[in-house]
Amino acid sequence: MTTLALVLVLAQAGAAEAPKRPAITIQTVEASGVQVFHLNMPWGPETFAAMERPGEGFYNRRSWPFARMETAKALKIEDTPLPAGNYALVFHPNTPDDAGMSLEVRKIDPGEFLQSGNVMTRTPEGETVWRAPVTFETAETSVPALEIGLTPGSAGLRLDVRYGNRRMHQNLHE
Fold first, then answer.
1. Domain count of the chain?
2. How many distinct helices (H) and strands (E) make up the chain?
3. Which residues on neighbouring strands pair with residue 130, listed in sequence order?
4. pLDDT tens over the chain, length 174 residues
5. Looking at the domain assignment, is residue 3 inside a domain?
6. Is the pTM of this model over 0.90?
7. Does residue 133 sit within a domain?
8. What domain range is 31 assigned to?
């Protein structure tokens, strides 16, 4: 066997064994007049741990716009009204003084700011409508990529966010 043939055989064997990651694309969930768009970002345990810990690292200095929410009807988050419209859902990492992570709902212009394949999307300009501390729980199982769900309930919807072995919920009332 020639050297070139051997290299080609080894290259094919290596390529066949390498697991192929799914493409990072925009996913959509919807329920009762609400649509949430997000990227199926792969779980990055060290990246997320850096956002949860107090610090001044790269991931503590930037916000994370993880989803876009369109509402066809007025809702409330806690006691804050959310008129029908287009919103960015943004996580803010823990701060050097250990104030904790927060979740922001930001009113933005219509249109998509998420970009398939780009997990470092810039936070869009807009008005902060609501921002509050957020706590993630540790789940018993991990998911391979960001998952968002909308669960109907008696008073409205529950926004469910799962990222790896971390999860949080936020109620959206009618």
1. 1
2. 2, 12
3. 105
4. 555 444 444 455 555 555 677 899 999 999 989 999 999 999 988 888 888 999 888 878 889 999 999 999 999 999 999 999 999 999 999 988 999 999 999 999 999 999 999 988 999 999 999 999 999 999 999 999 999 999 998 878 999 999 999 999 999 998
5. no
6. no
7. yes
8. 23-173
